[in-house]
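Researcher: For the annotation table, I need structure tokens for 4'-phosphopantetheinyl transferase superfamily protein. Please keep the output clean. Sequence:
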Amino acid sequence: MIATHALTLAKLAEHLLDDEIHVWRLDYQPQQRREPLRAVLGAYLGIDGDRVVLTDGEHGRPALASAHDQSLGFNWSHSGGHALIAIGRRIAPGIDLERLRVRPRALEIAKRYFTDDETSALAVLPMSARHAAFLELWTAKEAVLKALGRGLAFGLDRLSVTSTIDRLSLQRLEGDDIQAWQLQRLPVDATLVAALAWRGEARRIQLGTLASGG
């Protein structure tokens, strides 16, 4: 990953290619609300962040107001003092981030919301590995739903994901062709679990870090 600041961000934003997705990691506190997101989007739009106007879709997904460049797609997620922002052209990315932590009710939640295959895969894991595996499935599913522009009400059991050492794989998405989708885990760090999804061709992911205050 690369560390950068505001001037470098603006320079890199100028060179966002059609076959890329830029993913930025930054420190985040809830009281900042959407200001960091607007600041990053402003760099890609070539305007100050306070001039970026956001709207909310039917299921709460933020989008650029019609006055802005509609070819620019984005999504963001925050957890545990960190945030990730994904940006690409002519694409609707979905990204999800969770702080790695013990989830005592992981299997119980999986039985209620996940598919039978996913729950069975979690059940055979030792407790020491189950928490991370649960969060990986959760973030992958959330990323796909966010790329769809849908929320959890869509139903986590209407899509299924498998996880191996090498990759995440979308196995089923009700009403859609899984071959049209891309799903990738993001190697943020050992304390965070993150996934990125989008509908379309494979793209290169540029993962960077924004320095605090940058």
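Researcher: And a one-line annotation?
Model: The chain has a mean pLDDT of 91.
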